[in-house]
C-alpha cells in the first residue's frame, strides 16, 4: 500500500474495547446485543476514491494479506470515505467461524511473504463482519450514539455479502417483542458457534482506546492471550517436533513478566512443525521471567525470546497464577507482547477461596410427577455455553417425538456429570438414588463377564423419566433394536446400518453409500429411514418382522459385504482400522442383540450439543457439505415444529426380511 494511497483513507483510530461483564449478562431497554466474534479485530478504512486500507487493532497493515477484501464496499459509498470497525473471520466446513483455520491461513501467508504480494487464498476465503461505523463521508461519528451509528451502518448496501457484511445486532425491546430474553440470544449464540455476546449501551459514544462500562462482553469460552517463552521437544509419537509451550504474561499489578503455565494440546501437525522452526531461531540460554518457574515445569525446557503472542483456551486460572486445562488456538500476529496481561495478579498471599455454593435446587412438575432438579446453571457443553438447564429443556420439548423411540427399550446412558470435557460414564444398571416410580427391566447380562448376572435397565416411557435422566447428565441415550415386555426380550423389530466415515471421509460420503443401500433395501421390500448419528456418520433403519434374533445381522452383513465388493475403494464391511482410511464402514454388527445404537433425537457428547437427527431422503441426496446435515438442539426443535417426527412410519411399516 503506497503512502499516498493510505493517506487518502481516514486516519486510524485506536479501537474501543469491551470489558468483561463479570459473568452477568446485562438486561434492560437501554442495551443492544451483538455476537462476539472469533477472528482478527480490524478496521476497514475506505478513501473517497475507493482505496481500502485494512489495519489490525495495533495498526498493523493487513491490506495485502486480505487482498480479496480490497475495494468491496467502494461501489456502495458513492465516492464517500468510510471507517468500519469489525472482525475478519474464516468459516469452517460446518458453517461456523473457525479461528484455527484463520491461524492456518495466517501461517501460509507468513511463509509466502517472499512471493507475489496480494497472493490470494481461494481455498480459505475470509469475510469482514462490521459492527460499527466511525466515519461516513465528512461526518465523524465517534460522539454519535451507538443506535445512530448502527442505523447508518445497516443502511449501507453490501455489494458482496460473502466478503463484507454487518454483524447482527438486536435490542432488548426487539427481543421482548419476540417473547425472548437476552439469555435466549446468548443461548442462540452458543448453538450457532459464536464466542459469546457483547452488550452495548444504545446511547454510548465510541471511545477510542478505552474499555468502558458501555461495552460489556459475556464470553462462552475462556480465552487468554499468552506470550510464548519456551518450548519442550516432543516425545514418543511427537519425537522430532514440538511437544508443548511454556507461557508467560505480564502481572497487571507490577508489569513484570511471569510464568502462567504451559500448553501441550490443540496443535495441528503443521502448527507443531511451524512453531518449532520459528522458535529455534529465537532461543536464549535462560528463562525470561522475573522469577524462576517451578523446576518440575521446566524439565527439558528450551527458552526463547518473549516475542510471539498466542492464544489458549483454558478452564481455570488457579490461585497460584496458572492456567489449567489449556488448549492452543494459534498465534496472534495482531497482538503485541506488551499488551498481554495475566487474568489476574499472581498472588503473594492468598486466603482460602470461599466454598463453592451448593447447587440450586428447584422443584418442577413433569407430567404427573414432581421432580427436584439441581445445578441448572452448570455448563455441560463449555464450547457452546450450553447448560444442564438447557439440556433438560431440550429433552422436555422433544419428548413427544423421542419417547416413542424409547418405549419398551432398555436404555443405556452415557453420562457427563462434569460436562463433555470431563469424564464420561457408561451406565446400564439403574443408578443409586433413582426414583422408586422409575420403570425398569431386569434382564440377563450379555457381556463377556456377565455370566449368570442380571442388569436392571431403566425404561424411559414417559416425560418424568426422561427429565430425571437429563438431570443426572445422561446426555446420550442408546437403545437396542428390540423391546422388552414382562421381563422377556421380544424379537428384533428394527434393522439398522451404522455408516461410519473413516479418515479422509465425512457424512457426505456416508450419504452416497446410504443412497445405494436405500435402493437395495427398497428392492427387497423394506422401507428405509435415515438419521444422522449426531457425531460424524449416520444410520439407516427399517421396520422388520423377524422371529430369529440372528437374522438381521446375517442379512445386514450380506448387504454390507455386497456393497464393499462392488466398490472396495470407497466402502468396507470390515471393522479393522487399517481398512478404514478413505472408506465408509458399514457397521452391520449393530443388529447383534447385545449392541445398542444412539436413539433418534438423543444429544451427543460432542463439543456442541449436536443431535442424532432424522432426515429426509431429499436431504440425504442433496448433501454436499458436512454442515448440511449437522443439527444442534435448537435446530432439531425447529425441525420438529415444522416436520413432526420423520421416523413416524418406522414402527408401522414393518416387513419380513428377504
Automatic annotation (TrEMBL):
Pfam families: DNA_ligase_A_C, DNA_ligase_A_M, LigD_Prim-Pol. Its EC number is 6.5.1.1. Gene3D superfamilies: 3.30.1490.70, DNA ligase/mRNA capping enzyme (3.30.470.30), DNA primase, PRIM domain (3.90.920.10), Nucleic acid-binding proteins (2.40.50.140). In the N-terminal section; belongs to the LigD polymerase family. In the C-terminal section; belongs to the ATP-dependent DNA ligase family. Residues 119-251 form the ATP-dependent DNA ligase family profile domain. CDD domains: MtLigD_Pol_like (cd04863), OBF_DNA_ligase_LigD (cd07971). This is DNA ligase (ATP). One of its GO terms (molecular function) is DNA ligase (ATP) activity. Keywords: ATP-binding, DNA damage, DNA recombination, DNA repair, DNA-binding, DNA-directed DNA polymerase, Exonuclease, Hydrolase, Ligase, Manganese, Metal-binding, Multifunctional enzyme, Nuclease, Nucleotide-binding, Nucleotidyltransferase, Transferase. InterPro entries: DNA_ligase_ATP-dep_C, DNA_ligase_ATP-dep_cent, LigD_ligase_dom, LigD_pol_dom, MtLigD_Pol-like, NA-bd_OB-fold, NHEJ_ligase_prk, NHEJ_LigD. GO terms for biological process: DNA recombination; DNA repair. It catalyses: ATP + (deoxyribonucleotide)n-3'-hydroxyl + 5'-phospho-(deoxyribonucleotide)m = (deoxyribonucleotide)n+m + AMP + diphosphate. Its cofactor is Mn(2+).
Amino acid at each position: 500500500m503506497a503512502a499516498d494511497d493510505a493517506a487518502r483513507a481516514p486516519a486510524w483510530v485506536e479501537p474501543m474495547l469491551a470489558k468483561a461483564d463479570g459473568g452477568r449478562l446485562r438486561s434492560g431497554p437501554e442495551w443492544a446485543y451483538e455476537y462476539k466474534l472469533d477472528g482478527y479485530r480490524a478496521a476497514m478504512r475506505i478513501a473517497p476514491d475507493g482505496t481500502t486500507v485494512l489495519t489490525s487493532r495495533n495498526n498493523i497493515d493487513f491490506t495485502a494479506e486480505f487482498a480479496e477484501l480490497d475495494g468491496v464496499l467502494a461501489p456502495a459509498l458513492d465516492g464517500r470515505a468510510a471507517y468500519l470497525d469489525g472482525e475478519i473471520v474464516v468459516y469452517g466446513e460446518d458453517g461456523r467461524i473457525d479461528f484455527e483455520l484463520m491461524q492456518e491461513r495466517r501461517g501460509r501467508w507468513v511463509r509466502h511473504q517472499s512471493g507475489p504480494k496480494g497472493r490470494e487464498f481461494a481455498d480459505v476465503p475470509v469475510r469482514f463482519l462490521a459492527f460499527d461505523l466511525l466515519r461516513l463521508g465528512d461526518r465523524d461519528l465517534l460522539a454519535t450514539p451507538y443506535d445512530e451509528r448502527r442505523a447508518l451502518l445497516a443502511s449501507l448496501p453490501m455489494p458482496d455479502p460473502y466478503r463484507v457484511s454487518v454483524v447482527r445486532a438486536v435490542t432488548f425491546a426487539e427481543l421482548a417483542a419476540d417473547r425472548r430474553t437476552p439469555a435466549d440470544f446468548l443461548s442462540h449464540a452458543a448453538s450457532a458457534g459464536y464466542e459469546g455476546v457483547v452488550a452495548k449501551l444504545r446511547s454510548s459514544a465510541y471511545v477510542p482506546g478505552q474499555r468502558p462500562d458501555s461495552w460489556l462482553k459475556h464470553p462462552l469460552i475462556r480465552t487468554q492471550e499468552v506470550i510464548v517463552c519456551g518450548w519442550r521437544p516432543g516425545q514418543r509419537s511427537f519425537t522430532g517436533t514440538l511437544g508443548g509451550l511454556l507461557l508467560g504474561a505480564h502481572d497487571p499489578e507490577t508489569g513484570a513478566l511471569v510464568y502462567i503455565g504451559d500448553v501441550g494440546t490443540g496443535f495441528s501437525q503443521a502448527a507443531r512443525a511451524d512453531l518449532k522452526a520459528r522458535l529455534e531461531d529465537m532461543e536464549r540460554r535462560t528463562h525470561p521471567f522475573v522469577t524462576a518457574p517451578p523446576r518440575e515445569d521446566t524439565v527439558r525446557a528450551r527458552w526463547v525470546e518473549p516475542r510471539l503472542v498466542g492464544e489458549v483456551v483454558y478452564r481455570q486460572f488457579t490461585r497460584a497464577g496458572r492456567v489449567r486445562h489449556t488448549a492452543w488456538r494459534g498465534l496472534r500476529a495482531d497482538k503485541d507482547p506488551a499488551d498481554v496481561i495475566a487474568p489476574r495478579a499472581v498472588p503473594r498471599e492468598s486466603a482460602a477461596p470461599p466454598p463453592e455454593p451448593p447447587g440450586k435446587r428447584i422443584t418442577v412438575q413433569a407430567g404427573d410427577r414432581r421432580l427436584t432438579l439441581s445445578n441448572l446453571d452448570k455448563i455441560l457443553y463449555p464450547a457452546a455455553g450450553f447448560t444442564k438447564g438447557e439440556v433438560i429443556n431440550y429433552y422436555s420439548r422433544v419428548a413427544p417425538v423421542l419417547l416413542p423411540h424409547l418405549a419398551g427399550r432398555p436404555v443405556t446412558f452415557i453420562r457427563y456429570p462434569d460436562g463433555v470435557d470431563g469424564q464420561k460414564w457408561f451406565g446400564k444398571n439403574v443408578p443409586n438414588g433413582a426414583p422408586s416410580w422409575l420403570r425398569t427391566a431386569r434382564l440377563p447380562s450379555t457381556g463377556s463377564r456377565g455370566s449368570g448376572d442380571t442388569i436392571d435397565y431403566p425404561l424411559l416411557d414417559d416425560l418424568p423419566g426422561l427429565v430425571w435422566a437429563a438431570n443426572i447428565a445422561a446426555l446420550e441415550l442408546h437403545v437396542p433394536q428390540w423391546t422388552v415386555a414382562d421381563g422377556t426380550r421380544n424379537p428384533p423389530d428394527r434393522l439398522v446400518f451404522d455408516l461410519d466415515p473413516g479418515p479422509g471421509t465425512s457424512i457426505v460420503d456416508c450419504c452416497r453409500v446410504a443412497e445405494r443401500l436405500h435402493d437395495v433395501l427398497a428392492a427387497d421390500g423394506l422401507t428405509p429411514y435415515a438419521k444422522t448419528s449426531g457425531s460424524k456418520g449416520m444410520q439407516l433403519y427399517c421396520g422388520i418382522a423377524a422371529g430369529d434374533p440372528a437374522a438381521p445381522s446375517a442379512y445386514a452383513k450380506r448387504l454390507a459385504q455386497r456393497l464393499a465388493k462392488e466398490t472396495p475403494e470407497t466402502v468396507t464391511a470390515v471393522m479393522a482400522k487399517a481398512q478404514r482410511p478413505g472408506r465408509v464402514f458399514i457397521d452391520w454388527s449393530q443388529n447383534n442383540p447385545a449392541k445398542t445404537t444412539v436413539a433418534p433425537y438423543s444429544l451427543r457428547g460432542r463439543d456442541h450439543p449436536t443431535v442424532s437427527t432424522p432426515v429426509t431422503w431429499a436431504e440425504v441426496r442433496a448433501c454436499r457439505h458436512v454442515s448440511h446435515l449437522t443439527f444442534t438442539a435448537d435446530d432439531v426443535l425447529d425441525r420438529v415444529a415444522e416436520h413432526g417426527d420423520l421416523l413416524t412410519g418406522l414402527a408401522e411399516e414393518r416387513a419380513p426380511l428377504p
